[in-house]
Design a protein that fits this description.
- The structure is a single chain.
- This protein has a 5-stranded mixed β-sheet.
- Helices cover 34% and strands 30% of the residues.
- It has one domain: Trna Endonuclease, Chain: A, domain 1, CATH 3.40.1350.
- With 141 residues, it is an alpha+beta fold.
């Protein structure tokens, strides 16, 4: 039973067709590639002397891939992996909007862990993995 004046779109039953299996397989593949890239980046950072504090730290819908200590500096690391340079290099994907989101999540991390934003030395690094070549951009933004 529908009320008078309800738009036609709301009277229709929702689609029951499952999403394309191809698409979900692609998403699973991308996620697996991302996890491999983050594992490679974490291992690389540890060999460079970083101490990993957290991985995939989430705040609302955003996340920081790796949070680490480099001596006395808290480092927020964004990891970008590309199979090839056909769609640009990984580091190019960290645009201004992405930087702003990472900054907001970093502020939330400092607040949640009860660290002083004024007294905690922080830095934002980017690890770009292109064709399995790892590049570390310290103090990227």
């Amino acid at each position: 039973m529908y009320f008078k004046g309800v738009p036609e779109i709301f009277k229709q039953k929702p689609a029951t067709e499952a999403p394309s299996k191809k698409r979900s397989d692609a998403r699973r593949g991308n996620h697996a590639d991302g996890v491999r890239g983050e594992n490679m980046a974490a291992a690389y950072l540890e060999t460079a002397g970083y101490r990993i504090v957290a991985r995939n730290w989430r705040f609302h819908r955003n996340e920081i891939d790796i949070i680490a200590m480099d001596d006395d500096t808290l480092v927020f690391v964004e990891v970008k992996k590309r199979q090839d340079s056909a769609h640009g290099y990984g580091c190019e994907a960290v645009d201004h909007a992405k930087q702003q989101r990472i900054r907001r999540v970093a502020e939330a991390y400092l607040t949640c862990t009860k660290r002083s934003q004024a007294d905690t030395k922080c830095r934002f690094d980017v690890v770009s993995i292109d064709d399995d070549k790892i590049l570390l951009f310290k103090n990227a933004f």
